[in-house]
Write a structure and sequence with these properties.
Elements (H helix, E strand, L loop, with lengths): L9 E5 L7 H11 L3 E5 L2 H6 L2 H8 L11 H15 L3 E6 L5 H4 L9 H24 L3 E11 L13 H23 L2 E7 L13 H11 L7 H12 L10 E4 L10 H14 L1
Parallel strand pairs: 1-2, 1-3, 3-4, 4-5, 5-6
Helix pairs in contact: 1-3, 1-9, 4-6, 6-7
Length: 276
């Protein structure tokens, strides 16, 4: 991307862990588009990842913060505004975690303590973040807040487990808080429902590789990559989408509106012929 769509704009990017993550790609795209930002992730995630490399590449300060901790969020926002030199224009919430998925617990046998933790990290943290931004009046008018979601919020994907519930709650928070942010502050709030993407977090979902192939054959344009999602996010951060808010925007090559693809029908027909 060569256009300076975000020149002069400031923000915070949550969730960059390594070069495979969507937040990482978004940080690179925002930097290329002229935006400046603070990178943040939980302290434990910072120790696991290589975020310092991204910070050097994009000239971005790195501020550790637990997104489920309101004190951490308040300090993060204060430091970001101070270090970037003014109120914020964009925020990316790219956070998701399910201990039940990680530990292989089936949806019909969930550990509820793990469920509560994943819900707090994956969804409630979005409310906590926006509440802190709202109360501090930390966003400029016509600013843009984006969270990453997935179509399992609307449709059943058996192996996505309790993350599907988390994403449904996340999208509801975007609509509910987005109303007040728009009405009172002229700030946009949207979610992006991205194609299945081979990120570090995504690799924990059982059967992901098979589903990636299925989605690729279903979507008329094929799966959207992490880099393409980053470009789409830049557009949502830009002034070109000033009147887009409260939306869950599917960025999935058309997968979300296909019943069944001809490619899959043909494959099933071939299997029938082989079996007979």
């Amino acid at each position: 991307m060569t256009h300076q769509l975000l020149k002069g704009k400031r923000g915070i990017i949550f969730g960059a862990l390594d070069a495979a993550s969507i937040a990482w790609k978004t940080a690179e795209a925002v930097h290329e588009a002229g935006g400046t930002f603070v990178l943040t992730n939980a302290p434990v995630a910072l120790r696991m990842g290589t975020i310092n490399e991204l910070g050097e590449k994009t000239n971005a300060p790195i501020i550790p913060a637990d997104a489920t901790n309101t004190e951490d969020l308040n300090q993060l926002i204060d430091q970001a505004v101070e270090q970037l030199g003014g109120k914020l224009d964009f925020v990316l919430h790219s956070i998701g975690m399910s201990i039940n998925v990680r530990k292989g617990k089936h949806y019909t046998d969930l550990n509820y303590d793990w469920l509560t933790k994943g819900w707090d990290v994956s969804a409630v943290s979005f409310h906590k973040l926006m509440q802190a931004l709202y109360k501090k009046d930390a966003m400029n008018e016509w600013g843009s807040i984006v969270a990453l979601s997935y179509i399992a919020a609307q449709r059943t994907f058996p192996n996505y487990n309790d993350m599907a519930d988390n994403k449904a709650y996340l999208e509801s928070i975007a609509r509910s808080f987005g109303y007040f942010f728009g009405k009172e502050k002229k700030v946009r709030v949207n979610t992006i429902s991205q194609s299945p993407t081979l990120t570090t977090a995504g690799k924990g979902v059982k059967g992901l590789n098979g589903f990636l192939r299925y989605a690729e054959k279903t979507a008329p344009l094929g799966n959207a990559t992490a880099s393409e999602c980053a470009d789409y996010t830049v557009m949502l951060f830009s002034d070109y989408t000033r009147k887009v808010t409260l939306q869950n925007l599917f960025h999935d090559g058309g997968f979300s509106f296909v019943g069944v693809s001809q490619d899959i029908i043909d494959e099933l027909d071939e299997l029938d012929e082989t079996a007979s």
